[in-house]
Write a structure and sequence with these properties.
167 residues, alpha+beta, Alpha-Beta Plaits, 7 helices, 37% helix
Length: 167
C-alpha cells in the first residue's frame, strides 16, 4: 500500500505541532469540557474509505481528483488530518481522514468538489467505508487499524473475485 504524507487540517493545530508533524500524536483529554490541548474533548472521528475501480484506466483520474480535493484540506473546519492511499495492482484507492466530530465529516462529504468526484466514479467501481472513534490522536494506531480494516479477509477475497476490465 502506498500512501501520501499526513496532510494537517486546521483542527490539527489545536492538537499540537508534534502530532501533526510526525503523524503520531498524543492524547487530547477525555470527559467533558476542553482537552488539555485546546480541542473540545470527546471522540475524534476517523473515516476510512476504500474504492475498488472496475478498470485500471480510471485510477490516474481518481488519484488526480483526490489530490486536488486534498488541497482544500487546510481550510476545512473540523479537519484534523488525513492520508490518501493507493494499491494500484488491486485497483484500489481511498483515504483515512480524522475529524473533530461527525458534523465536520458530514460537511466534507457534502462539499461540491467531493460530490462531483463521487458522481463521476461511483458507477465505475465499488466503494465501502467505515467510521471509527478514538479518544485521542494516535496516528500510528489509526493507521494500523485502518490498514487492518482495509485488508480484512472478506474484502480481499471479494477483490480477487471482482472481474477486471483492461479497457
Amino acid at each position: 500500500m502506498l500512501s501520501s504524507r499526513w496532510c494537517q487540517g486546521p483542527a490539527g493545530d489545536r492538537l499540537g505541532d508534534r502530532a501533526a508533524a510526525s503523524g503520531v500524536g498524543s492524547g487530547t483529554g477525555t470527559g467533558t469540557g476542553t482537552g488539555r490541548l485546546g480541542r473540545p474533548s470527546g471522540p475524534l472521528i476517523v473515516g476510512v474509505t476504500d474504492f475498488t475501480s472496475d478498470a485500471y484506466r480510471d485510477l490516474p483520474g481518481i488519484a488526480r481528483r483526490g489530490f486536488a480535493l486534498r488541497r482544500c484540506w487546510p481550510q476545512l473546519d473540523g479537519a484534523v488530518g488525513m492520508w490518501l492511499w493507493v494499491m494500484p495492482s488491486a485497483r484500489r484507492c481511498g483515504s483515512v481522514s480524522v475529524w473533530t466530530g461527525r458534523r465536520a465529516l458530514a460537511e466534507f462529504v457534502r462539499l461540491p468538489e467531493h460530490v462531483a468526484i463521487m458522481n463521476e466514479y461511483r458507477r465505475r467501481g465499488t466503494i465501502r467505508s467505515v467510521i471509527l472513534e478514538y479518544e485521542s490522536l494516535d496516528a500510528a494506531r489509526l493507521r494500523r487499524d485502518a490498514e487492518a480494516w482495509l485488508m480484512s479477509d472478506d474484502h480481499r477475497r471479494a477483490v480477487r473475485e471482482t472481474p477486471r476490465r483492461m479497457t
